[in-house]
Amino acid sequence: MKLDQEQIKKIALASLLLVALLYGYFEFLLGPLQTSEKAATNGIATVTPQITDAKKQINRTSQLEKQAPEAIALLSNLKDTIPDGEPIAWFPPKMTDFFKSHGIDKCTTHLVSEGTDPTPGLKRMVWSIDIPKVGFVPLGTAISSLENEEPLTTILNVTIDALREDAEYQHATLTISTLVKS
Amino acid sequence: MPLHVNLYHEVQRQELARRRDPLRLGMMGLGVIAVGFVAYYFVVLEQAHEVTTQYEALQDEFSKLDPKAKAAKTREDELNTEISASDTLVKSIDSRFYWAPVLDQVLKTVPRTVQLTHFSGSTPNSASTTVNTVEITGISSAIEPRKEAEALRTALNTRLGTQFDGVNAMFKTLDDSDEIVMLDGRRLATAAFNIEIKLQAKDPAAVAAAPAPARNPKLVAAQ
User: Fold this and answer.
1) N or C: which end of chain A has fewer CB within 10 A?
2) In this structure, are A76 and A102 located in the same domain?
3) Shared domain check, A53 and A27
4) Model pTM score
5) What ipTM was reported for this prediction?
């Protein structure tokens, strides 16, 4: 079958039209659609882990909220045991009263140094407590009570010297550090 | 046999040629392909719509969750700071060295033939070490005062060793003295000694270990 000139022209025209249509179809219809689908798929891939992370974060915080009150209450309770005001004003009288309650009438408390502490809102102060005359057993009892009743206080140094004039008594010096509000 | 003459062969040939027109066949083929393309377009359109809808739903969910997650993160940081502060404090309380048990053991160990003239105990300044030092100075009196001093050193080692770790009592000095003391009506020779004892609280690893999120500080019952 032979094509005449007119048919060849028509086929050529139809081919051009087909190419144009295919171009338009892929470029202006299918192309943007696939692009938007791809963008949405990528978006899903991005957002899904973010949602998972957000849910995990919310869940983690909620778990922490359940655990935290005990720790916060403990910290708060310990801080509440520290009197307000300048430590130099309340700590020496507190020690005098403490040792008096253990039968040690005379003691002198001096501030040695102060420094920072890792606990926020607190600082560490070092004091020297001089007890000029004390029996060994009352001193031991007082130290035991101090260590048990004052959790924020640490005894750094204990020095006990026998008194030459009275062998039954000793001269004691305690160096203690305590946490106070900063 | 009858003879048939087809007078329409021209018409039939033209009709056949019209039906076999490549242009017409091509157009029909193109039509079919176009229908396929349109159908495919709608399939893709539906898929894209589904994916886009899902993405929008997820975005909507994320936009609601994100502020909550950010607030949760801030709250978590606050809580962690407070828990960490509490833990640090509890750790610091738990890692205290208690001197009352040391004094108690020294009191129980020193015999009446020994008089202590000086006792000093100190905890290390540095957090890297947990070894505490005790220094005891005194006078032992016996027929063999050096043996008495040695007995005291050994007894201190043994007694303190039951309550503390790494106990090591050593003489820094042990000298015979010219002084003579009267004990139970007997004249006894004396020796001056100075003992240094190194000791640390039991199980320092447990003390140094990270504490649980929330717990109460332990208070060692000193005697």
Assistant:
1) N
2) no
3) yes
4) 0.71
5) 0.74
Mean per-residue pLDDT, A72-87? 88
Do A1 and A73 have their domain in common? yes
What per-residue confidence (pLDDT) applies to B127?
Answer: 67
What angle (nearest 5°) sits at the alpha carbon of residue B126, between those of residues B124 and B130?
55
Q: What is the mean pLDDT of residues B196-218?
A: 57
B75 within 8 A of A61, measured Cβ to Cβ: yes
| CATH number for the domain that contains residue A153 | 3.30.70.60
Domain boundary among A81, A96, A122: A81
Residue numbers of B between 94 and 133 with CB closer than 8 Å to A: 96-100, 103-104, 107, 115-123, 125
The pLDDT tens digits for A13-22 are 878 988 998 8
Tokens 């003489």 belong to B171
What type of residue sits at position A155?
Answer: I
Return the pLDDT at B214: 36
Q: Does B170 touch chain A if contact means CB atoms closer than 8 Å?
A: no
Q: A62 falls in which pLDDT band (50, 70, 90)?
A: very high
DSSP readout, B144-209?
Answer: SHHHHHHHHHHHHHHHHHHHEEEEEEEEEEEEEEEEEEEETTEEEEEEEEEEEEEEEES-HHHHHS
Task: Kindly state whether residues A26 and A77 are assigned to the same domain.
Answer: yes
Please, what is the average pLDDT of chain A? Answer: 90
B18 touches chain A (CB under 8 A): no
Which of chain A's residues have a Cβ under 8 Å away from the Cβ of B59? 43, 47
Q: Which residue has the higher pLDDT, B170 or B206?
A: B170
Find the domain containing A67 and state its range. Answer: 1-81
Q: Nearest CA to B132 among B77, B179, B202? A: B202
